[in-house]
Specification:
The chain has helices at about 5-15, 15-30, 35-40, 70-75, 80, 110-120, 130-140, 145-170, 185-195, 200, 205-210, 300-330, and strands spanning about 45-50, 55-65, 90-95, 175, 185, 225-230, 240-250, 255-265, 270-280, 285-295. The protein has about 325 residues and is an alpha+beta fold. The radius of gyration is 20 Å and the shape is globular.
Length: about 325
């Protein structure tokens, strides 16, 4: 996403909701004026956004919902609502503070078990720190029954990650040693946040809170949620475990923002930041979704990048259209 101009930032701070929608789409994401008009008529937008970094994937999708903003938020607070999919094997809300029971449904398959056992620092197909890799060898090499031992290790790691993150905030974000060059998740998040200047334009308080998040005692938004999912995408990809921190912030009576920040992913992602902007449409709600992720598979560019560029916008439109249909027929949103 190209940097926002100072003029746009100053305008958006006091803009009416309809103006904010137009400026966010057109000035930040380069959406054509006729596409914004189609959105107002009920069409769905999906767009790939140029990042200037071959490692990053940035997507925009937008739709006009028939339900009010508050109804959407009621629906969203139930993680199973938006994580109900054939691709999602398990999903669970994580308590504050987390409990072992929050992770007891998460399992491991034989391929993942082989990956864990084969890991060494600098060469591992699981996103782990060097200490976690060594710990895995200590616990699994002496296990009488590998599968339950690996699942118990996985659940403990999830519990520990969630607990320390809620206590310390960004200081607890890990450094991955899955490749020869370590990757700091904390640094990746800061770079993704810096590449999303529209957040500060919408709410300086929210942007500052995200930049300096120090655990549950700090408050980057009005409401916080945590959830864990296990997802399978097919196409030869490994099952993906995600641990996510969600902040819900009300920038004004007419505008709310949902920020979903990836705390940990078992594969592929070095970091991900998803922002959903909800704007009163009178009637209904404009939903504008922007996701920027750093993905290790895209480092090599070439065919993989071309494939993503070709299919991602259509997939984004399809996903937000399915969300629209689900929300508008949901009991929680009525």
């Amino acid at each position: 996403m190209r940097p926002l101009t100072v003029t746009w930032i100053l305008l958006s701070a006091s803009a009416a909701p309809a103006d904010l929608k137009t400026m966010l789409l057109q000035d930040c994401c380069r959406v054509a004026a006729d596409a914004v008009q189609r959105l107002e008529r009920g069409e769905v937008l999906g767009k790939l956004i140029e990042t200037g970094d071959e490692r990053d994937l940035a997507l925009l999708s937008a739709v006009r919902l028939s339900v009010p903003k508050g109804a959407f938020l009621n629906w969203y607070r139930r993680v199973e609502n938006y994580k109900r999919s054939p691709l999602v094997l398990e999903a669970a809300l994580v308590q504050q503070p987390p409990r072992p029971a929050d992770f007891e449904k998460f399992t491991i398959d034989p391929a993942e078990l082989r990956d864990l056992r084969a890991c060494v620092p600098g060469k591992c197909s699981v996103k782990l720190s060097a200490a976690e890799i060594e710990r895995g060898h200590r616990e699994l090499d002496s296990a009488a029954d590998l599968k339950p031992a690996a699942e118990a290790l996985l659940r403990r790691l999830l519990l520990e990650r969630a607990t320390v993150y809620m206590q310390q905030g960004d200081l607890a974000l890990s450094t991955y040693h899955d490749r020869p060059e370590p990757v700091s998740v904390r640094q990746v998040f800061r770079e993704l946040l810096a590449s999303s200047p529209f957040l500060r334009a919408i709410s300086p308080a929210l942007a500052t809170g995200l930049q300096s998040y120090a655990g549950l005692g700090s408050a980057p938004g009005d409401e916080q949620m945590f959830y864990c999912t296990r997802e399978r995408y097919g196409f030869g990809l490994k099952p993906l475990l995600n641990l996510t921190h969600v902040v819900i912030h009300h920038a004004s009576p007419e505008v709310s923002v949902i920020v979903a920040k990836q705390i940990w992913a078992s594969h592929y992602y070095d970091g991900s930041l998803a922002v959903t902007v909800l704007i009163d449409a009178h009637p209904g709600t404009y939903l504008i979704y922007l996701n920027r992720s750093r993905i290790d598979l895209l480092r090599s560019g070439g065919f993989k990048r071309a494939l993503v560029n070709r299919f991602a916008p259509g997939a984004a439109r399809k996903e937000v259209l399915a969300l629209k249909r689900t929300v508008e027929t949901s009991a929680e949103a009525r």
